[in-house]
Specification:
The chain contains 2 helices and 8 strands; from the N terminus they run βββββαβββα. With 179 residues, the chain is mainly beta. The chain has one domain. The strands form 2 sheets. It has a 5-stranded antiparallel sheet with strand order 1-2-4-5-8, with no helix packed on it. It is rod-shaped and about 85 Å long.
């Protein structure tokens, strides 16, 4: 059965420093863990990319902004942001040396031929994914698991708005006929 455990929240604070300065800060948090079944118990799977997996996602976002009014015709807005997403994927057979135990040479990174863990490589990819008769079923773990990776994004933006001229409209000038 597929499971999902997720915790997420957002916090925002606004503060007026003076009649010309305003600050805001925001923090967003998302932490999710899920189990995605492959359709069969153990290391059997419905297809070559359908193994039982544990997924963990970490998401964080921070935003800070400052508005400053120089005059009725000059306004500055600066924002700073940071965004991070990081993922971990592990299949059921990871760290098990199953391929080496079954006698498939060189199939498990970090395992000896006898199926014991090798200290030079601390993990095993489990049982290599093998699809029997096309379209029926497969055995093993996904080819890209275990996986660990993510991104960090930084941003800065500054906007200065200046009003240099003004236009005055009166009701007479708007509705005057064109000659």
């Amino acid at each position: 059965m597929r499971t999902l455990n997720e915790t997420k929240f957002d916090i925002r604070l606004d503060h007026t420093l003076s009649s010309k300065d305003n600050l805001f800060g925001r923090f967003s948090y998302d932490q999710a863990g899920s189990f995605v079944p492959g359709g069969a118990p153990g290391l059997a799977e419905a297809n070559a990319f359908g193994s039982n997996e544990n997924l963990v996602n970490h998401g964080r976002n921070i935003g800070i902004g400052w508005n400053h009014v120089f005059s009725p015709r000059a306004l500055n807005q600066a924002t700073l942001g940071y965004d991070r997403i990081f993922d971990y994927i592990a299949s059921l057979g990871n760290y098990t040396c199953e391929s080496a135990i079954l006698g498939i040479p060189g199939a498990d990174l970090g395992c000896s031929a006898s199926g014991t863990s090798n200290s030079t490589a601390p993990y095993s990819e489990g049982l290599v994914s093998t699809q029997f008769t096309s379209g029926y079923w497969a055995l093993g773990d996904r080819g890209y698991s275990p996986f660990q990776g993510g991104t960090n994004i930084y941003s800065f933006k500054d906007d200065l708005d200046l009003i240099r001229a003004s236009m005055k409209f009166t009701p007479a000038s708007i509705s005057a006929p064109i000659r």
